Amino acid sequence: MMNIVTRFLKDESGATAIEYGLIAALIAVGIIAAAGTIGTQLKTTFETIGTKLTTANSAS
Length: 60
Fold this sequence. Notes:
mainly alpha, 93% helix
């Protein structure tokens, strides 16, 4: 019985899986934040282009 407890306390495979899970979660948060920033910048760019096209179309 003592051998089983000692082996259980030395087993770190679960800790490794949790660490990989935390790393994956942090990467996902970074990707989501970057996508939000890029999305906002793209929206602004397309709105500017749309406004300029509308103005150019009205002038002609």
